[in-house]
Amino acid sequence: MNCIIKHGRNFMAISDRMEADRHRHWLMQLFLGGSRELNIEVNDERIPCGAVMVNMNTMHRFEPNGEPNFTMLVDPVSELGQKFKRLLSERPFYVFPDHETNVLRRAFRNVLEKGGKEDYLIFARNIQDFFAGAALHPFDDRVRRVLMLLDECAHEDEAHQLSYFATKTGLSESRLAHLFKEETGIPLKSYIVLHKLRKAYDYIFDGENFTAAALRAGFGSLSHFAYTNKLMTGMSATGILKNSEFLKAD
Questions:
Q1: What is the secondary structure of the chain as a DSSP string?
Q2: Residues forming a β-bridge with 6
Q3: Contact present, 43 and 58 (Cβ < 8 Å)
Q4: How far apart are the first and last CA of the chain?
Q5: How far is CA 179 from the centre of its chain?
Q6: 154 — phi, psi (to 5°)?
Q7: Dihedral sign of CA atoms 147, 151, 154, 160 in order
Q8: CA angle, corner 50, sides to 136 and 191, nearest 5?
Q9: Alpha-carbon gap, residue 16 to 168, rounded angstroms
Q10: Band of the pLDDT at 21, cuts 50, 70, 90?
């Protein structure tokens, strides 16, 4: 089974054949097993656990353990990403305590037993509610402006350039880059790449083929999209999409 779910800026997957080579990316990633220990390494260290959050820009790899697992790629600027950033507190990973792991596992096993599309979507929505916490400090207005421009962009080349956002925010490129990294924890250039990758998957979710989705999202070619996808996820795009079902929870 391989079910991929989009919820806001975040992507989730329920799969029994998920396998990722050693890689790092500028997203946080949650891994959850059904009943067995996860087969996961972080910074070349095997982490014995049932649920773990891996920080952004941290090397990790994952292999199937013979049962369906759940993973979620969390955008650091999303509400959930900001909460996980606080939870991680600069650490490379966070192993969830047993009581939280057990709650998450029970909910996940219940979803697997039901096996319905709507059950998967409810589970995806409930993940964010599970980690709800105190109110978050809002981003600087100029960072919010950049995020809004990215959400609204028509994916022309200029709309993916640092100079474009610097002009729109009235800051120099270096000052904007520093401010964005300071506020979000991720370099602006890297976030623009993630934005393009996310948009490509948005179009794939809407039924477009690989090539059309990649070009429309701002990649110069299908090979550029494939290379970026492998670099960011440790998996090939075809491997992710083969025999997969796509659901939207938003």
A1: -EEEEEETTEEEEEESS--EEEE--SSEEEEEESSSPPEEEETTEE---SEEEEPTT--EEEE--SS-EEEEEE-TTSHHHHHHHHHHTT-SEEEPPHHHHHHHHHHHHHHHHH--HHHHHHHHHHHHHHT--SPPPPPPHHHHHHHHHHHH----GGGGSHHHHHHHHTS-HHHHHHHHHHHHSS-HHHHHHHHHHHHHHHHHHTT--HHHHHHHHT-SSHHHHHHHHHHHHSS-HHHHHTT-EEEE--
A2: 11, 248
A3: yes
A4: 22
A5: 22
A6: -95, 10
A7: positive
A8: 40
A9: 45
A10: confident
pTM over 0.70: yes
Predicted pLDDT of residue 156: 62
CA–CA distance, 81 with 74 (Å, rounded to integer): 6
**Can you give the pLDDT at residue 243?**
67
Q: Which of 72, 11, 62 is nearest to 39 (CA)?
A: 62
Q: Which of 137, 32, 36 is nearest to 83 (CA)?
A: 137
Higher pLDDT, 122 or 95: 95
Pull the structure tokens for residue 247. 């659901």
pLDDT of residue 148: 92
- Please name the residue that has the structure tokens 């925010």: 169
Determine contact, residues 84/53, Cβ cutoff 8 Å: yes
Whether the CB-CB separation of 28 and 22 falls below 8 Å is answered with no
Strand partners, 32: 51, 70
Q: What angle do CA 147, 237, 91 make, to 5 degrees?
A: 55
Residue with tokens 């350039």: 161
Q: Facing residues of 54 across strands?
A: 29, 93
Hey, what amino acid is at 80? L
The mean per-residue pLDDT over the stretch 118-135 comes to: 79
